[in-house]
Amino acid sequence: MSSVPVKPGLRLSVSEWLSSNQQLSAAAGHERRVSNGIRQEGRPAGDESDTSRRLSDRLWDVARWKDALEACARKVDEEMEALTLSRLSTALAATAIPLEVSTECVTLREGRRGSELVLDPVDEQLKKEVQLIGRVQQVLQQHVDKAFEQLCVLQEVRHQLTSDLQNKMDALDIDMSCLSLTIKSPEISLKTNPTRIPSGSSTPQEWGQFSQYNVLQAQEAMQVSQHMREDTSLTRAQLQNELAVQWRATEFVLRKRTHDEEQARDQLQWQIRNTEDEMIEMEDDIKGLDLDLQAKTTNLKLAHTRLENRTSRTGMDLCRDEVPKPVQHGLVNEVHQLKATITALDQKLSEAQRSLQKMKLHHARMLEDLSRKQEALSLEQRSLNTRSHLRSASCSGRSPVLLVPLTNSSGRSHLQLLAQ
Predict the structure, then answer these.
(1) pLDDT category, 87, cuts 50, 70, 90?
(2) Is residue 406 within 8 Å of residue 144, measured between CB atoms?
(3) Residue in 386, 373, 367, 384 with CA at minimum distance from that of residue 112
(4) Key word Glycoprotein present in the record (predicted)?
(5) Are 111 and 235 in contact, with CB atoms under 8 Å apart?
(6) CATH placement of domain 52-181+209-311+325-396
(7) Which is more confident, 363 or 19?
(8) Could you report the per-residue pLDDT of 239-272, keeping only the tens digit for each?
(9) What is the CA radius of gyration of the chain?
(10) Domain edges within the chain
(11) Alpha-carbon distance 183 to 168, whole Å?
């Protein structure tokens, strides 16, 4: 039987064989890394292709932030324009005319005289109207001041964005110029200490945080501005509603008062006409009484003369002749009756004259009062005419448009962007 030939020497196990392979692989990797390190150290510092790649990466990072800053700056500009055109100053300026109208109505009605100078509901509503407009102006001015301050904040963040953006654009220009340089570029040269770290240099982390902070500050300012515009819009609508309600209330009582005064004037004119008719009739009666009095006086003179003449009879003819024909007695009775009639007529005439005089005095007072009423009505009508454009604006549903720059209570206005 033949035997299997065996190769003399030490034999390895499978695990030892695997370990040997791993050691060889590890040693090969180590030698390659050492070799690569030696080769890299042997290369000239600042390999141009590697630097160009890094410059390209840097340019992409700067361009990305530049685009973000530009987009944010545009939004800030839009918000500043929206806040400027939020109609705050227009609404505030629009209250000047209603205040002037209300004040003029108060002044006009102060021109009433005598019994027409009445503390009526119109006075009360006009005073409320003036006070309300004053409060509206105060509230709107407060909002204008806040909007002006917020515009200053937006302007400041816009300035920060603009400054940062300008720096990014300058950095892009410089890095793009560096990227375009080659070993053949005529402007390249050796520089003194080019590897120095310039004063004020930032770390990459600080660089990114700075732009991010500027954007966040701008977004926060825009959010505040948007909330302010919403609040301002709501406040303006509420104030306009209050003014509209007050204007209608004042309009109602003014028209009602005018109607009452017209009725009082018409009633007074009717009284004056009737009084004048009565005065004419009374004057005619007085003339009749006077004529009757004159006639009765003449008759009395006749009776007196007859009685006096009959006293001249002599002797037995100086007779009282009472019967059968009582001439003397009749004359005496006639005298007594005429005297009584004359006394009554005279009394009646005096009463009529006094009554006529009283009517004339009262007629004069009524004429004076009518004059005051007509003046008061004229003032009320002028007040209604003065308020006519308020009614026109109310019917059209819009306020007069006045282009007024946003100005705070100190008078500052005309905001300018520090950089566009």
Answers:
(1) confident
(2) yes
(3) 373
(4) no
(5) no
(6) 1.20.250
(7) 363
(8) 999 999 999 999 999 999 999 999 999 999 999 9
(9) 58
(10) 52-181+209-311+325-396
(11) 26
